[in-house]
Design goal:
heterodimer; A: about 240 residues; alpha/beta; six-stranded mixed beta sheet; four-stranded antiparallel beta sheet; 8 helices; globular; B: about 290 residues; alpha+beta; 10 helices; 4 strands; rod-shaped
Chain lengths: ~240, ~290
């Protein structure tokens, strides 16, 4: 089990709850596609998953430990096991594409000499070798999105969370990126992908569709009730 | 990622060359004022100590209304083992002194001018023995200590030294508050970078190290500029010898220990700025989810 939510609710200030009574489990190596209308609470749910927000009630277990009330200083090691692709990319504007992608490795303590090759390879993979020194404001939306994805996956996260990761790229690049996510999933990464593009579910054999509406989860394919199908099983 | 070992790439995480353009100048001004106040306090304290030392063995032998008997008065104790030196004060010098207070009217007035002699005793000598010896010839002779005469002045100088120390601490507090404000402003300006760093697993200490390092550089630059300006001004004052001559009769205005303290001030200011910046960053980050 990668993630478990038990009776989780979230409210901001004194507003009504944006997430209510969430009970679900995400299994290791699962590939989940989270969908739902705008304002359904997808981003809030993702914030809980990447430990940027604490629930106002309920219990969250992640990486086999309860994280609901973990002290602040215990969170960074867990966050290093999570890769995030933000909807608005959140690239650091004054850093080059190379430095943005290298950031998780640097934070984890890897030396400049050791991170040079993996970062170059990752930039090559997302087709940005020649833009390594470019800064985000000089990159197109699609290029920025690819840098954001490269940053999210460079440290081989155990849990990858992506918010509309293919929203700004063309169909061909979208297919390549989904292929990258799928490849990481095959290597053992649990993937949670929030999107409006339901065709992505079809591109990844074994992907589970989860729908969030009005702050509550529905489970049209039974993904949350049953263990996810493994890629190899789905492909067989 | 630590303050001392930080790669160029890590340093680039904070944009620009400075936390805030005003910070180094603010610290320069604070250091300048702090050093001048500290130097004044140390000089005054040093002066009080010198004055006290110098007056410890100095006495005045006085014979009320004994004008003209100065030499005899001095001779009455000259040769005693307790007396290192004794010098009669010429009557003219006493009259000159009186003129400064009373003006020309003192001349010719029927004033009871005393006979005076400046006496320096040997260390540890008993002044009562010396006075007793003088009284064998001049029963109304009085031996008074310069130290007791100067005690109120010495106490005032010491108090001024403490006031200076208090002022230095207050200026330090004000500088600390300025550092907190500058750090908070820098945190607000770099909020998105910090959010991304936290998202990829940076600890608060790693984030704090960036701001701490930047503040250290700003503070060090400012403190050195302030210290150089203050040092120049102090050299001008002390070097001209005006202060020393007026206050201490040509003695050194400040001791080597005090000079060392002054030299340490800019580095202490930098260290305090770094520590305060780190505390401000950590405290601010702890308020975030």
């Amino acid at each position: 089990m990668m993630v478990s939510f038990e009776g989780v609710g979230l409210r901001y200030g004194t507003e009504a709850e944006v997430l209510r009574d969430l009970d679900f489990t995400l299994d290791k190596r699962g590939f989940y596609v989270l969908t739902g209308p705008s304002g359904a609470g997808k981003t809030s749910l993702l914030k809980l998953l990447y430990l940027a927000q604490r629930p106002t009630r309920g219990r969250i277990t992640m990486f086999d430990q309860e994280v609901t009330d973990l002290p602040r200083e215990a969170l960074p090691p867990l966050r290093r096991r999570i890769g995030i692709v933000y909807q608005d990319f959140r690239l650091i504007e004054h850093l080059s594409a190379f430095d943005n992608v290298a950031l998780p490795l640097r934070i984890a303590g890897m030396s400049d000499a050791d991170l040079e090759q993996p970062v170059r390879e990752m930039l090559a993979w997302v087709g940005l070798s020649d833009r390594a020194r470019a800064k985000p404001p000089t990159l197109s939306g699609g290029e920025q999105q690819r840098v954001a994805i490269a940053r999210a996956v460079i440290a081989r996260p155990e849990l990858l969370i992506a918010d509309e990761p293919t929203g700004n790229v063309d169909a061909e690049m979208a297919q390549r990126l989904v292929g990258l996510f799928s490849g990481l999933n095959q290597l053992g990464t649990t993937v949670v992908l929030a999107t409006h593009d339901l065709s992505l579910v079809k591109q990844v054999p074994g992907a589970q569709l989860v729908r969030l509406e009005g702050g509550k989860l529905s489970d049209p394919t039974g993904a949350l009730r049953h263990p996810p199908q493994r890629r190899e099983e789905a492909g067989a | 990622m630590s303050v001392l070992r930080m790669s160029a790439a890590e340093r680039r995480l904070l944009p620009g060359g400075r936390l805030s353009g005003a910070t180094p100048w603010l610290i320069a001004i604070m250091t300048f004022v702090m050093m001048l106040v500290a130097a004044a306090g140390l000089t005054v304290s040093h002066g009080a100590a010198t004055l006290e030392d110098a007056s410890a063995s100095r006495y005045t032998l006085q014979l009320p209304g004994g004008a003209g008997k100065e030499e005899a008065l001095a001779a009455s104790i000259r040769g005693l083992p307790q007396v290192r030196s004794v010098e009669a004060v010429p009557r003219e010098a006493v009259v000159d002194s009186l003129e400064r207070w009373l003006g020309a009217a003192s001349e010719g007035a029927d004033l009871p001018i005393p006979a005076l002699a400046e006496v320096t005793l040997t260390p540890g000598a008993d002044a009562a023995v010396v006075e007793k010896a003088a009284r064998t010839k001049f029963p109304t002779a009085q031996l008074s200590s310069s130290r007791s005469t100067l005690a109120p002045l010495v106490r005032s100088l010491r108090a001024l030294g403490w006031v200076s120390l208090g002022l230095v601490l207050l200026i330090g507090l004000a500088a600390g508050a300025a550092v907190v404000l500058a750090t908070r402003a820098a945190l607000a300006a770099n909020r998105s970078t910090i959010a991304v760093m936290h998202g990829v697993g940076a600890t608060d200490a790693q984030v704090a190290a960036l701001f701490q390092r930047r503040m250290a550089l700003d503070a060090l630059a400012g403190a050195l500029v302030g210290a150089a300006a203050a040092g120049g001004l102090l050299l001008l004052l002390f070097g001209a010898g005006q202060v020393s001559e007026r206050w201490l009769g040509g003695g050194a205005p400040i001791g080597p220990g005090a000079l060392f303290v002054l030299a340490l001030l800019p580095f202490a200011a930098t260290l305090i700025a770094m520590t305060v910046a780190r505390g401000a960053v950590i405290a601010t980050l702890r308020r975030t989810p």
